[in-house]
Amino acid sequence: MTSAMQPEDTPALRKLYADFKDHHLNPLWTQLGDLMPRQPRPKAVPHVWKWGDLFPLAQASGDLVPVGRGGERRAIGLANPGFGGEAYVSPTLWCAIQYLGPKETAPEHRHSQNAFRFVVEGEGVWTVVNGDPVRMSRGDFLLTPGWNFHGHHNETDQPMAWIDGLDIPFSYNNDVGFFEFGSERVTDYATPRFSRSERLWTYPGLRPLSGLENTVSSPIAAYRWEHTDRALTEQLLLEEEGQPATVEQGHAAVRFVNPTTGGDVMPTIRAEFHRLRDGAETAARREVGSSVFQVFDGRGAVVMGGVTYELEKGDIFVVPSWIPWSLEARTQFDLFRFSDAPIIERLNFNRTLVESGN
Amino acid sequence: MTSAMQPEDTPALRKLYADFKDHHLNPLWTQLGDLMPRQPRPKAVPHVWKWGDLFPLAQASGDLVPVGRGGERRAIGLANPGFGGEAYVSPTLWCAIQYLGPKETAPEHRHSQNAFRFVVEGEGVWTVVNGDPVRMSRGDFLLTPGWNFHGHHNETDQPMAWIDGLDIPFSYNNDVGFFEFGSERVTDYATPRFSRSERLWTYPGLRPLSGLENTVSSPIAAYRWEHTDRALTEQLLLEEEGQPATVEQGHAAVRFVNPTTGGDVMPTIRAEFHRLRDGAETAARREVGSSVFQVFDGRGAVVMGGVTYELEKGDIFVVPSWIPWSLEARTQFDLFRFSDAPIIERLNFNRTLVESGN
Amino acid sequence: MTSAMQPEDTPALRKLYADFKDHHLNPLWTQLGDLMPRQPRPKAVPHVWKWGDLFPLAQASGDLVPVGRGGERRAIGLANPGFGGEAYVSPTLWCAIQYLGPKETAPEHRHSQNAFRFVVEGEGVWTVVNGDPVRMSRGDFLLTPGWNFHGHHNETDQPMAWIDGLDIPFSYNNDVGFFEFGSERVTDYATPRFSRSERLWTYPGLRPLSGLENTVSSPIAAYRWEHTDRALTEQLLLEEEGQPATVEQGHAAVRFVNPTTGGDVMPTIRAEFHRLRDGAETAARREVGSSVFQVFDGRGAVVMGGVTYELEKGDIFVVPSWIPWSLEARTQFDLFRFSDAPIIERLNFNRTLVESGN
Amino acid sequence: MTSAMQPEDTPALRKLYADFKDHHLNPLWTQLGDLMPRQPRPKAVPHVWKWGDLFPLAQASGDLVPVGRGGERRAIGLANPGFGGEAYVSPTLWCAIQYLGPKETAPEHRHSQNAFRFVVEGEGVWTVVNGDPVRMSRGDFLLTPGWNFHGHHNETDQPMAWIDGLDIPFSYNNDVGFFEFGSERVTDYATPRFSRSERLWTYPGLRPLSGLENTVSSPIAAYRWEHTDRALTEQLLLEEEGQPATVEQGHAAVRFVNPTTGGDVMPTIRAEFHRLRDGAETAARREVGSSVFQVFDGRGAVVMGGVTYELEKGDIFVVPSWIPWSLEARTQFDLFRFSDAPIIERLNFNRTLVESGN
Predict the structure, then answer these.
(1) Is residue A5's pLDDT more than 90?
(2) Least CB–CB distance from B206: residue in A203, A231, A260
(3) Looking at residue D357, what is its pLDDT?
(4) Do B and C count as touching (3 or more CB pairs closer than 8 A)?
(5) What phi and psi values does residue B149 have, to the nearest 5 degrees?
């Protein structure tokens, strides 16, 4: 569209624009299409990080970079190619592979940023959240909501790697973050099978009377793979029995929620687990907000913006806002997903468009 | 207090009062103290029903009264002695012992009234809720929220009894109830170990993506004893480890909740399970609203309004509004509790007074 | 329906029923149809109280009955003919005409019961709510939410009468009420035109920063007729301009709300004002819950359960639960309405049936 | 703090860092202090824009730049000096002076971005929001919530200027915005004194029965100065009478709210009006999130980060996140304020620190 508002380039206009600059002003009419596009036009691009690349690089950093106070974590952020090097996987989300060598400790600290970990393989690390030791094992989803002290330690002779998800870019861009150092060693080196938070909170539909106040984030420190797997298995069995249980044909899914409210686990991050039957395809959809997936098991593909990316275990991909995406399963196909949907929904910017056909 | 408003008994006053009556009027000043007492003055009285009386009477009714359409249920309501025979355990709540003989079926129907069942002993009955067969076993808490079709059938050669809880008096007094007959036989005689509702909904902190709309009542049809028992066991273990987990010393407790909201299972009825260590005593408290308890296991006592009632397995007692009550455990002491607390709280009439000492 | 559960009347059965009685039990099968009817079957009946009867009787009581401590209020309750004399207008609601003679004071007290006043005529009384003097004038709707101290005094040489609405029956039946006497004289005899509550809270869409905590009940002590009248007038004008503004053709209506939430003014009582154009008729509807209307101005009729009742200024009528009702305007017809809808809705018992035609 | 994680600069490390870059990775340990500072460290800086500069530049643009389709609005954005020229007043907020010449029309469009206007002087423009013409006059606060069509036209022979506030930077950074062109002329050139939205919605505590569904944003299109002024005047009078009514001594304030919820007018923007008595000073406070103020009347100063800025009518200043700020009144001092507080609060990042003394 040509604009009625592009005036003739006269000395007077140049003087006006120079005056704008001098007074820290900037007119809307020269930049409207960029600032307020017809639909989201993300700088972030669709991208896949291969686990086959990530894990060796994490190992190499384990050899070269000690973990400790100051740097705090041996975490390597996924830097969306659209952002010119910044370690943001999307405009709101941070995703990193974190690596802890045998017997290492990552010191305790806390921050306003909400954090989780998801374990695609390995075991032997405990994360200590506000003094409660939480075992980390394959398939577990673990929470460290904002302002909870936390550190990690590896009890074994094997290194362990997992992914971290945080709202670092959102916090950074909007100036909301606080950070505080804690103990240089974790405050409890016990290695219980289940954290105290789990022993209190992980009975379906049961709420301790000592925990009747709703909490901003979930009080469950660890969502165990055993439960996630069974939930998905049952959805597919129920579908076979002709019962409504899946989101779409061949596509089982659960959301991780805060049991005190039934809502998202943390105020800024949604987390889900998806399972597709071998051969299943999802509808193509566009959503406002950005998502990150990690393949947990099986093989398949994601189609983003018309391009098909083949995927295997551990691969991570990002779907920027309003990019059409769909999944295709080459085997049974399990994926962990997290997104900024709570931000989008709480501020009423959510829209979804399900496209006909795939 | 003597009232300034008790006028002299004159012919004019008698005429006035007669005129009031003729015009369907009734003055406040003659009845204020009754209508608006200084504190709740319930007609309902504290009372204990002994399981040793209830069960044989239920058996006898099994011999004499067929179950079927019209009467619908072989349920015998607990009639608070303060109400002159009405089958209300409290002004808001109904509690009955229901009995189903070998191979019997109680036909399907639905009603606005919210209902649950709690099983103090036995097994072999399935309740079919909107077509979903739900096993009933000792310790299970089972829901039939308002307007869900439901019937029961006994698969075995043994009779089975359990308690029903409903908001029948509340619905009756406030004219809110609808009722509809359904199938004379239950719509599905399958006897699965777990209902479809459980297969979808009973994973801690996991919510199916096909169930993202919040529901007025819990979608969980059965809360199993295994989970309740473990939750209580862990609370007491955590207490021994010096962790905050119990409501008061030696007193573990859970509330049954709707996983879509974290709130009560149904809009009018709260349900909880309490466990006291051998020798523990609870603080004495007064609460607005009425509660019913059934002893599930162990021996102990309840003190209500200063009177001590000894209790054993199956005994049921009612605590009317604002009557001080406390529990004493003679062994490990397990009690199921239900109450009208959601009514009281949603209408902001709740008050609690914890008395010093016991 | 004949019941399969009416067993033969044998000595054994009689013995069983006698045993039930001895043990404070009462079977469901003999009373199901009464306790759980197909649809609400209220004891309360539709009824009209004529202002032409009410006001003279209130005057007569002003001559014969002093107002003061103990009886507290010269209030004459409307006793639904279905209740055998009890001063309940419906199972949940109390409605009374209150009368205060020249220079009289009704002493201060407070109670859990939620109360309001509506003024169909007159002026000159101030009600003092937690120390804040509130003028009462024709058309005003005035709140005394639960547990606020309040008393009234008449500044003039003329008596004044108005109606009171409370949740006394609900509180009484469910044992939730507390009551406390306050000062024998009101604590402030000032007669300001506007209460402090109005000076803080009655600017459209403006909330004082000193009042950011939501309150259970509205902080507005007086809803003035001037605003109600203008709101209704504008709705009818907008309707004439072809804009959506009325609830149905020729029927303007507003709800009085708590500005901190947008919800009902008090947890148990809804209040509305309705205006019909001359000649308008409303659709016939059935609703769960009970309502009371007072004609504020004009002439018309209400049809309840197929019976037409002619109405004029001051007349009060009650619509019990699920009774079909509609209004017909013989002139412009203004009605104040209050109901127990918040109770019904918060407990999810609400249903409405709009009948085709009238 | 020196970091344990700054490894020796070896060829192997350089190789590792190069590999990171090649694979779109970026380690946390080299940038933690920047990404996750101890407290918010905004790029935005405190800044004041003088009305004496803004208005003449807007006039000049009125002479040189036609208004019309494409550029859409003659709006000149305030560019925070910390952002290097981008037209963001803070990381979340846009603030512009908009100017409309005699008889001009700004065409209709709609966008996801939430918008408001505040009028510091002048009159004669109507903004047409979803077909409803809304008069704009001095002191009025006017809403255009996301996805409402809107255009403006000036009825007079005088130009008019006002400020616009939007969440453009937030929408842009997080990829949530949609935009659609509408009519090139406004759809209704009527010039009523009050919009239809006001005629329906601006009666204190009254809600039309035709508007019982809660809305994401306020249905009130215009908050009039008359009400704002009276609300502030009464707060200060009540304070003089010894009543609690102000936020702090000599400081009256109101929040503009959505009457359907009592909450903020739009999901991303809070708006308030503050009045200080001559000589009053506010406490110094730090808040998470950014605010913009415009002086509406009087003279005074703001202290930001220890620097005092003198202010007069029309001056606009921004307070970035966590910068300490306080106000000082040299006369009665009136300020309009808007902020991103709803974003901060809905995502639970809110913190406030009131500093002792000033």
Answers:
(1) no
(2) A231
(3) 52
(4) yes
(5) -65, 140
Q: Both tokens of residue A64?
A: 């070269």
**Beta-bridge partner residues of C309:** C302
Report CB contact under 8 Å: D228, C203.
yes
Partner-chain contact D24 A57, CB within 8 Å = no
CB A150 within 8 A of CB A197: no
A58 touches chain D (CB under 8 A): no
> What is d(CA A96, CA A316) in angstroms, rounded to the nearest whole number?
10
Residue numbers in chain D where pLDDT is lower than 50: 1, 358
Closest CB to B76 among C27, C49, C175: C27
SS3 call for A189 = coil
Residue among A23, A65, A75 whose CB faces D7 most closely? A65
- Integer Cα distance of C30 and B230 in angstroms: 41
> pLDDT tens digit string along A61-78?
999 999 999 899 999 999
Q: Which residue of B has its CA nearest to A208?
A: B254
Exposed e or buried b for every residue in D289-318, given b needs 16+ CB within 10 A?
A: bbbbbbbbbbbbbbbbeeeeeebbebbbbb
Residues found in chain A: 358
Report whether A75 contacts A97 (CB < 8 A): yes
- pLDDT value of position D5: 84
pLDDT at A244 over 90: yes
CB A113 within 8 Å of CB A177: yes
Mention every residue, 6+ apart, whose C-beta is less than 8 A from residue C238: C244, C245, C246, D196, D199, D200
* Residue with token string 């999810």: C348
What is the residue extent of each domain of chain B?
47-211, 223-354
Query: Rounded to whole angstroms, what are the CA distances from A21 to D71, D79, D85, D93?
Result: 19, 9, 8, 19
φ and ψ at A14, to 5 degrees? -60, -40
d(Cα A156, Cα C282) in Å, to the nearest integer?
Answer: 77
* pLDDT tens, position by position, A245-270: 999 999 999 999 999 999 999 999 99
Q: What's the complex ipTM?
A: 0.97
The domain made up of A222-354 has a fold known as: Jelly Rolls (2.60.120)
Instruction: Give D199's contacts in chain C (Cβ within 8 Å).
Output: 234, 237-238, 245
Same fold, D47-211 and D223-354: yes
Check CB contact of A190 with chain D, cutoff 8 Å: no
From CA A270, how far away is CA C262, in angstroms rounded? Answer: 30
Locate D192 and state its tokens.
């009523």
Estimate the crossing angle of helix A51-64 against helix D11-22, to 10 degrees: 160
What Rg, from alpha-carbon coordinates, does chain D have?
Answer: 23
The alpha carbon torsion through A33, A34, A37, A39 (nearest 10 deg) reads 150
Residue (of C53, C138, C161, C114) closest to C271 by Cα position = C114
pLDDT > 70 in chain A, percent: 99
Q: By the 8 A CB rule, do D186 and D153 touch?
A: yes
Asked whether A154 and A103 are in contact (CB, 8 A), the reply is yes
Q: Select the CATH number that applies to the domain covering A47-211 from these four: 3.40.50.300, 2.60.120.10, 1.10.10.60, 3.90.1150.10.
A: 2.60.120.10
Alpha-carbon span A159 to A65, nearest angstrom: 14
Give the tens place of pLDDT for each residue, A177-217: 999 999 999 999 999 999 999 999 999 999 999 999 999 99
Span A279-306, mean pLDDT? Answer: 98
CATH code: domain C223-354 is 2.60.120.10
Strand ranges for A138-198 from DSSP E: 141-144, 150-154, 160-166, 179-181
CA atoms of B199 and B191, how far apart (whole Å): 14
- Are the C-beta atoms of residues D270 and D339 closer than 8 Å to each other? yes
Query: Each residue of B8-36: pLDDT tens digit?
Result: 899 999 999 999 999 999 999 999 999 99
